[in-house]
Structures are given as C-alpha cells and as structure tokens.
Hints:
Chain A is mainly alpha-helical. Chain A has helices spanning 2-27, 41-68, 71-103, 112-124, 127-132, 137-165, 173-177, 183-237, 241-248, 251-260. Chain B has one domain (14-241).
Amino acid sequence: MYARALKPLALATAAVSALAFTMIFFWAPLDADQGFIQKIFYLHVPMAIVALLGFLAAGVMAALHLRTRDRRWDIRSYVAVHLSIILAVGVLVTGSIWAKASWGHWWVWSEPVLVSFLITFLLYAVYQPLRFSIDDPGRQARYASVFAIAGAAFTVLNFVAVRMADAYTHPRVFSQTGGNMPPRMFVTFVVALAAMALVFATLWTLELGSKSASERLRRARRRRERDADRAELAGAGGERPRAGAHADHSPAAAGTATASR
Amino acid sequence: MTASGQPQTAARGARRQVGAARAGLAILRKDLRAELRAREAVPAMALFSVTAFVLFHFGLDRARLEGDVAAGVLWVTILLATVLAVNRMFVAEREQGGMEAMLLAPIDRTAIVLAKAAALFVFLAALEVLAVPAFGLLLLGGDLIGALPELAALLAVADLGLAAVGALVGALAAETRAREVIGPLILLPLVVPLAIAGANATEPLFAPAGGPAELGRWLGLMGLYASVFMLLSVAVFDFLLED
C-alpha cells in the first residue's frame, strides 16, 4: 500500500524542492541586514516546523494505536518520531550556523525556538532506548505510544515555558513571517515549507514501505520453511502426504498456510 | 441491553466508584507505611540534597548564594532528588509482587496512578521540609523566612506537577531493561519547564534587593503543567499496566 504512493510523492518532492531552491537563490530578495546568510532561514524554519508537526503527528498516531489496537499505527508513530529526531538535529545544526553568522555565537540561549528544540530533542533521544529495552513486542508498542503521547503534550508545554523565560531581546522568527516580511520572501518560505513537508512525507512512506516489505518477506520465509518441513514429512510418511501433514502440525497453522498459498 | 441488565450494571458501576477512592487511599496508606518503616525514599533524597549543596558550594566556590544562583541551585537539587524517588516507586512493586496483587484486585486502575502520585507528593513535601531549611542554613545569603510563604506555594504547585509526571515516568521506566538509566533520562527533560518556572519565580525572592515577583505567571505555568500531566497520566496509565 505504501509502494503505490511512493512514486508520485517522490516526483512531487523532487519538483517542489527544485522549485524551492531556485526561488531561494534566484528569486527571493537579499535580506537588508543579514545578507546572504539569511537564506538559511528557508531551510531552518521549515525544518523546525515540520519536525515539530512530526512529533505532534506521532503523538496522534500513538493515541490511535492505543485506541484501535492496530499495531500499524504504532509503526507509523515510530517512523514519524524517528524522522523528526533527524530533522531536529538538522534544526539544531542550521540554527547554530545561523546564530554564529548573525549574532557571533554558535549557541544563543535567548533564541527560544533553538532552546526548545534542544530540550525536545533531549527528550525524544530517549524514545529509541526506551523502545528497544522492552522485549515483549506488544508492550514495546504500548509503552512507546505512551511516550509519544506524553512527548507531544510536553513539546507544546515546553514551547510555552521557554518562550515565557525568554527575555525578548531578539526579533521573533514568527513575527518575521507575519506583516513585515516582503511578499517574495513569504512566498518562497511557503514553497520551502511545502518542499520540507514533502521530503518528510516521502521518507516516511519509504521507511514504512521498507518495514512492511521486510515484514512480508519474513512471513513468506516462515511459510516456505513450514512448507519445506511439511514436504519432508510427507516424503517420510509415504502415501497420503496431506493427511500426514495435517496430523503432525496444528490444524490452524496448516490451514492458514494452505489458504495463503 | 435488557431491562433487567440495566440496574445491575449501574449498581456495579457505583460499587466500583466507591472502590476506586477506597482502593486509592489503601494503596497510599500502604506506600506511606512502607516508607515509615523502611525509610527508603525521603532520607535518601534529603541526604542527596545536602550532599548536592556541599558539591555546589565547592563547585561554585562561594560561601553564600543569592538571587538567580541560589534559586537555580535549590530547584535543580530538588528536581534531581526527585529522580531517586521516581526510580524506586514501581521497582519494589514489581520485585515483590505488589503489582500483580493490585492488578488482580477488582479496582479501577486510575486509583493506582493517583495513589502513586499522591505518595510521591508526600515524599517530595517531606523532602522539602528537610532540604529547604538545610539550604537556608548552608548556602543561602538572603532571607529565607521572608521568602517562605511564596516559596512554599511555588514548591507545592511544582510538587503536584512532579508527582504527576513522576508517576507516569516511574511506570514507563519500570518495565525496561535499563530502568536506572532510562528513568532519569526521560524525567529530566520533562521537568525543564518546572525548572524554568521555579527558578525564575524564586530569583527575586532570594535577591538581596528583592525584585518584581511575577508569582502569578509562573504559578500559572506550573499549574498548567501539573494539570496536563495529571490528566495524561490518568488517561494512559491503563495501557502501561495491562499484560
């Protein structure tokens, strides 16, 4: 089901990303204060927004897993967290570069988005250690889902808290996206945001597709081994192989194997 | 539903409601009695806090602390001491079969999380009764008595938040293989908003000249944090207990 969506998604991602980069470098005006370095804004802020929405979406998917008990929602939530963590690292690195270029320091505690991201990243960095230190698959899925829900609620709270602690010495990124941003910059920003969202969606679909493919492969291998076992038993048992196989295996397992062939 | 089934389920529901409050109180009483007899959590947390004050004294190389540094040292120490109690909270239940007994009992699971949070709240309050005077004696240069009413209010609301988040994290980490590591690693980022609110609100209380206290704002943030995590813990706790 993921493979069918992958091709159009990948094509759309390539097209919109190419458009976004063209607009960033050839169409959007240079910033009057910061000059060329301001263009990192078109990478940094979309990354931050998409990573944040990814964490929130992972929380919603985790809630759906707990509600419907469908394990696929847990896998979707896991992949969303996983990709958002990678994007969060990108946010920290690009934010750090931007801070160095425009304020002269690699790390600025008064930039609330950057600080919030560090805290959120530190929390979500424990998602995988928590998940993989639980052996039972059902419990692993449930505990990871609880973590993802708590993490999503925390992400929102954390942004409120860090913003409150901030001394308001720097211009807000979001006030830039509002009224005082030239229209060309704003349109470029929106296209860059769409491109980043598409990158996220493509990678998410790709990883889910690969996970479901390897799961199907594992199931097919198991079925083949079972069939091979049965054939061996049938060969040893002489005549009427089917009845012999049914007697040796549990009827349910043999039944599904026959039905799915 | 048939007409005869209706009152029966209603009656069962009512009995379960009464059971939840009674069961919660019973679990809380059990936890407090175990703590009074074994004295595991609160003395360890208090000792940890005093040792941390000594470490801060040498680490910062100051005899007396004031203002933002004093507020930061006090809050960070209390938040770190919380880790000790949270780590132990569900471990004893798992090791000695208390969890199985609670799960087998016909009680609402909400009672378990509320009782655990209440026990953690009591432990934290007891810790603060010991650690805050020790902090005043050992490190604080400012006036502790004058700051006490505001500080008590801040600590009480922060303890509510810590109790909620601690019950959730304790249950989450108790089932993992490396719980001594996973528990603190989850808990510490989660309590950052409390550190922000607590340290910012306490800073003017410990400043020599005093300052504009924005108590309402920070109490509001802590209250929001406590209510969000309390609701969250009650909502998701069922999924941590089922097998």
